[in-house]
Each structure stands twice: as C-alpha cells, then as structure tokens.
Amino acid sequence: MRWTVRSRPFHLALALGVLSLAIILAELGPRAFAVGVLFAVLPVPVYLALALWLDRFEPEPPRMLATTFLWGATVAAAFALLANSVVDAVARDAVGDLGGLLTTVLWAPVVEELAKGVALVLLLFQASDEFDGLTDGVVYAAMVGLGFAMLENVQYYGRAVAEGPDASLGVFLLRGVVAPFAHPLFTAMTGIGLGIARERPGTARAALAPFAGFAAAVVLHAGWNLAASLDAAFAPTYVVVMMPVFVGTLALVRRSLGREARVLRAQLAPLVDDGVLTDAELDALCTLRGRTEAALLAARAHGLPGWRRRAAFHRAAADLAFVRWRAARDGVACVEVEEVHLVRLRELRGPP
After folding, report:
1. CA gap 110, 155 in Å, rounded
2. Residues with Cβ < 8 Å from 117, sequence gap 6 or more?
3. pTM of the full predicted structure?
4. Is residue 318 a part of any domain in this protein?
C-alpha cells in the first residue's frame, strides 16, 4: 500500500482505472460518459471532507488516505466490474432476469466488499503504525468506499442520462443525495471489525471481529441491493436499516474518539512534569474543542503559517502518544522513534 507515482503498484492501479473507464465509455458512449464523470466527481470533495472530519485527534497521512481512495477507484472497482459483468451475463443466460437479481443480491455484495476490504487488510499489516483502532478503520473504509462509489457512479449516472432527464434526476437524488454514504457505510463494517482487532490483539474478540465485520458488510450491502431492486421495500429499508446503522456507526466513532482522548492524556501527561507541555496545552490537545480554539488563536495571531504550525504540533503530539501507547501495549520499546517525535514536538511548541 506504500505507492508512489513511480511504483509498479501505482502503475497497475492506474492501468486498472483506465481499463474500467474504457469499459464504461464503450458501454455508454461519449456524451453519457462525460456527464456521468461530471456528476460522479463533483460531490466527492464534500464527502471526503465529511469523512475526514471524523478523524481529528490523529489525522491519517494524506498519502495513505489518497492510496486507499485510489484503491477503491481502481483496483477494487475494476475487479468488481469485471467479475460482476461475467457472472451477470452467465446468470442471465441461465435463468433470465432472475439471474440478474441473484447476481445483484448474492454475488455483487460479496465481491465488492471483498475487493474493498482487501485494502483495509493490507493497511493493517503493511502500515500498522497508521491503523490504531476503530476510528482509523472507519476513516480508511470511507476512503476506499468513496473511491469505489465514484467510479461506480460514472456508470449509473451515464446509464441514467441515456434513458432521459427523469431517470437522471432520480438516480442522482438516490446515489448523490439520499444515500451517498452507502458504499462507505458497508465497508465501515469491515473497518470496525479490523479496528477492534487492532485495539484488542490476542483476544477472542480480536480473532472474530474482522470476520463478523465483513459478514455485516455483505449482509448490509445485500439488503440494500435487494431493497433498491424492489421499489416498495426501498423506503422502509432506508429508514429502518440504513439510517440506524449510519447513526450507530457515528456513535461508535464518537466512543472511539473518547478512547483516543484518554490515550492522549495518559501518554502525554508525563510531558507536563518534564516541562515539554503546560497543563493548558495538554488539556487543549485532549479535546476537539481545545484543539480548534488553539488553531484559531494561532491563525488570528500569525495567519495561515500559524494555523499550519499549530496543526503540525497537534499531529506531532498525537504521533508521540500513540507510539508510546503501541509500545506499552505490545511490550516493545521504541525509544528512537519516540525521541524523533519528541524533538519534533519541542520544535513546534509555542508561537511561530
């Protein structure tokens, strides 16, 4: 998952993304394809901002977030597009329209959640220092889900444009307004499972949580696809299932943020005695409100450079806290790494 613009994985992902777009272009034609791309890309920055808003105590590295989003929009989307197309064609030849429904409800959720979930598993093992718990699992799941949904929406919006204005409006309202969080929410179940496993390694819960999370993602996805295929079932499913799960996921993230605040306070409190931090700075670091107020004060006093320096200070403190937390949890000393973060924290402390 450590891709760069010169790496082979990046080139492969780019090739898969181009292949997916080429297949969709061949299906839709230039005009419908162009409109589909426009409608699919325009709202993405808004949804990305909302997802990143959840991860404010220990923001993930932009490179890792971009990599995860890219995986969803290229590798996962290409694999799902090809696999679903083949199975759908075979199933329709065998049993007609029923085959299409079975592909949508039984096959596609498994394939798509597996394709997206692989990105989270790779992150957990290859970048474990950036995957600390439930909040990170949900944030990375949102990234891969948004990337996947963006490419998928090109196809759905393009098909709707080909059918006419009424169909276009209906599809846009459904996928862009009513339920833009669908794919991120499905994959968040896998992210929650992996996050629990990361928080509680070596326990029975850690062993079962990823499988339970993936199963929940598939079931939720399958139920959504079935409801979307049966018009009468859509509204009840949205109200009774999707919204409560969405609210419940936000509640779990809020609880996880509280755990992160406790980690910060416990691991950074010794720095007050060492004179690295003041009591006021520690209090500000351990609450979202305190961080926001500190950043705004820095911005008022020193403009954008002050705000950026304060944000970097918060990030350095969080990095140090979680390095210490992981060392204590795993029983592995990380003195050199801690020292690097501590030096960085001292450099950034105080007004620029």
Report:
1. 20
2. 187, 190, 214, 217
3. 0.89
4. yes
In terms of domains, do 217 and 275 share one?
A: no
Query: CB within 8 A of 311, min separation 6: which ones?
Result: 295
Collapse the DSSP code of 352 into the 3-class scheme (helix H, G, I; strand E, B; otherwise coil) and give the result.
coil
HEC letters along 217-285:
HHHHHHHHHHHHHCHHHHHHHHHHHHHHHHHHHHHHHHHHHHHHHHHHHHHHHHHHHCCCCCHHHHHHH
**Terminal CA-CA length for the chain:** 35
Cα 42 to Cα 35, 218, 318: the distances in Å are 11, 28, 33
Q: How many C-alpha atoms does 88 have within 13 Å on its Cβ side?
A: 13
Q: In terms of residue numbers, what domain contains 325? A: 260-348
In a domain, 255, yes or no: no
Give domain status of residue 251, yes or no: no
Residue 170 pLDDT:
75
Please check the confidence at residue 242 and state whether its pLDDT lies above 80.
yes
Q: In this structure, are 296 and 192 located in the same domain?
A: no
Report the alpha-carbon distance of residue 115 to residue 170 in Å, rounded: 28
pLDDT (mean) for 30-51: 87
User: Has residue 120 been placed in a domain?
Assistant: yes
